[in-house]
Every structure is written in structure tokens, then in C-alpha cells.
Amino acid sequence: MAMTTDSIFYQDMDGKPIESPNKIKIMDISIELFSRKGFTGVSIRDITKEVGIKESSLYNHFRSKEELLSTIFFNFRRSISRILPQEDHLGGMLQSVSPELFLKQSLAGLMKHIDDPVMAKVWRMMYLEQYRDRVVRDIYLNDIVGNMLKSLEKVFSIWIAAGRIQPADARILAAEYQYPLFAMIGVYVLLRVDGSSTWDIETGMREHVDYFVSKIIV
Amino acid sequence: MAMTTDSIFYQDMDGKPIESPNKIKIMDISIELFSRKGFTGVSIRDITKEVGIKESSLYNHFRSKEELLSTIFFNFRRSISRILPQEDHLGGMLQSVSPELFLKQSLAGLMKHIDDPVMAKVWRMMYLEQYRDRVVRDIYLNDIVGNMLKSLEKVFSIWIAAGRIQPADARILAAEYQYPLFAMIGVYVLLRVDGSSTWDIETGMREHVDYFVSKIIV
DNA sequence: GTCTATAGAGGGATAGAC
DNA sequence: GTCTATCCCTCTATAGAC
């Protein structure tokens, strides 16, 4: 996967790039604060104070606090869609690498997304707001959990059909592979709130991939 | 496991049972509201309005909004500690039942806890507040994730030593078994926010136990 | 696009009568 | 233990000058 810093470029919800320095600063600081205190725990005052503008100036960039939140998740969704394997490229990719390597590379791609200084915070926001906000809940359940399981199921079916792994229910394999990672990612982003060491949980993720692979190879 | 309705009995943080009907009502309604809108998203006014008392009356029961929150999590912690396998009873229990049955019964015990009408909401609160509140973070990371993994590791070591399952790293087995369940529980409580069907994810949990057992038996 | 000023509602918490 | 009344602060958002 090519190096990219795309993820720090924001767009408005109509697709226009956000270029105003103050608007970018509002996004950055809102993400930082929302991810630590939650949407309802952060006031417009908190945000504008750190940005260095008056409250009223924020409303030149966003119509409301809600629109600011929606813009953040709009960009998260856009960013997430890029780390899912592209259906049409699957065929070629799956032939050229081993299951083990493919899974390790996917995990690396996911971790790269979560490790992005901005996206790490939005992941936290997602876990934090999903109980309060139906849109966020749908992003998690559909865009993240649903899509990842579906695309993994496809991958495992292909491997099974090609006899590269043991015959099994591809849907169950996808769940067995992915759900532990979801839980571990949750722990990972939680540990990073306090700046605690994430060494154990990262090791756990690698051990999981190894264990899983050891149980499915022919 | 014997039927019990213990979980709906609250204690104050000094250990005294909460008996005042209004105080119980405050607890119930706070849990309901906090679990849907988050601590900072709910006001004392919201709570007392539903309880049917004036704001000032709440302060006869709790010194502050924070103390109310702490009391809720104090009771959650107490309740959680009861679903962990007791170290001293492990020996006997492990000899009398098969690994498969033991794991299925543990899962049933956990699901029973989460299905309790009150505790389901506090689980949601825990997922919701853990990013904002260090104490809640510690409850999740230590009392729940940490303790469950530790006690499961013990169980697997015993089985391995007794030759009842294939030799393996007990710590990894514990992680492989438990992490998917954590993620699935997260999805489960999330689905219940909207009253969506949890049939798929419950099936997923059972399939996980089956798959896991199939990979470890001798 | 930023500012000052302010509106108008809602926040947590307390005093003191009953 | 509940009430009325109130304090003082913070909240989101808008109007209008520059």
C-alpha cells in the first residue's frame, strides 16, 4: 500500500476540500476534544477558545454544532472506505500472495488507519458516540463490521474453492478472524487515551493472526 | 446457576442497601437516560422530571451528579464480580463437566448478566463512558477484560495439564476464546439500543464457541 | 471572516420553609 | 424527604459593525 497523507485532508459534506486554515483548525481541535470528552461534553466555547477565535466566528464555517459533528464523520466514512479491499482487485491480489501474508497486510493496513494521529481520535469518537447517535451506529455496524465481514467472507470462499485453506463455512471464518480484531482495536484505542503501553495488545493481534492461520491452512 | 433477581438491588457506596423508593427510581431512570444519551447529555432536570420530584430533592439522595454516576458503577462492579468463575471452585467444576459444556455455561452466565434489563443498560453506559472516565476505563480493562482473560487462562492450563485439550499457549487460547465474545457483546448491546434483532449476533456467539471447541479438543 | 454584544434557554447546586 | 425560590454560570445561536 502506497504511503499517503490523504487522511488529514478534510472535505465539506458537499465534497469541496476544506482549505480555510481556521476551518481546518476547528476540525482538528473538535476531533481532539470530542474524542476525549464526547460531543455533549464539549462546548462551542471550548473549541473556539483553543482555536483562538470567538464563538460567533465558528458559525461562519458550520451552521451548527451538529453540522460540525456530521462533517467529521463524513470524512471518517470517506477514509474508512479506502481501507476495504476493492472487490474488483481481489482476484489478482489473492493469487499472488499467501493467505498468511494477505491477512497480515490487511491488518497492517487497518492499523495504519487507526494509527493516523487524526483517525485514531475519530475511531475513539465512533466508539463513544455510537450509543447516542444513530448515524454513527450505522457507520460502525454497516460500514465497518458489516463490510469487513462481507469482504473477508468473499476472500475465504475464494481460498476454499481454490483448495488453499481447509474447507469450512467462509462466513464463520470471517467472524473468527475479524471479531477478535474489533475487540482488540477497542482495547488499543482505549489504552491510547491515557498513553498506556499498547505493546501487549499489539502482540495479541499478531498472535491472533498466527493462531488463526495455523488452524485454517491445508 | 440458580435463578436470582439480585442484580436489581442497589447498594450505596458504603455498602448499605438502597431502600428508599425514590432513590431506587432515581437509579433506574438515571441508568436508562445515561445509557442512551451519555452522562453529559443528561441533566438533573431530565432525571428528576421523569422520577416525578423536584431537582432539589435529588440532592437529598446524592451529593452530586458525579456521586450518582459513581454509585451506578459501584453496583455494576459488584454485579460483574459475581459472574466470574470463583478460583477455589474451579477444580471441582472443571472435572465434572466437559470443556464444551463449561464454555457454553460460562457464555450463558455472561449473557444472562447482559440480558438483565438493568445491567444491559449499564453495559451500554460502560462502553459509552469509558473514553471520558478513567474509572470506567479501569473497570472495563481490569475487572472485565483482564479478569476474564486471567481466569480463562487458568482454566485452559488445567485442561492442557490434564490432557483434555490439545497442548497450546493457554494465554493465547483465552484470548482467542474471549475477544470475539467481547466484540460480539458490543454489537449485541448496540443492536438493542434500537431494538433491532440480535438473532444473527447471538447465533454468531454460539458458532464461535462451536468453532473454537472444534479446534482445541484432543 | 472576524469581532462585540446579547438573547434566551438550560445547566448544577443551595437555602430554608414545611 | 419534599417543596419553592433562587443563584450564578454555561450553553447554542444570532445581529450587526468593521
From TrEMBL, chains A, B:
Keyword terms, alphabetized: DNA-binding
Q: What range(s) does the HTH tetR-type domain occupy? A: 20-80
- Pfam families recorded: TetR_N
GO terms for MF = DNA binding
Q: Where's DNA bound on this chain?
A: 43-62
Q: Which Gene3D superfamilies match?
A: Tetracycline Repressor, domain 2 (1.10.357.10)
Q: What top-level branch of life does the organism fall under?
A: Bacteria
Known SUPFAM superfamilies for this protein? Homeodomain-like
What name has this protein been given in UniProt? TetR/AcrR family transcriptional regulator
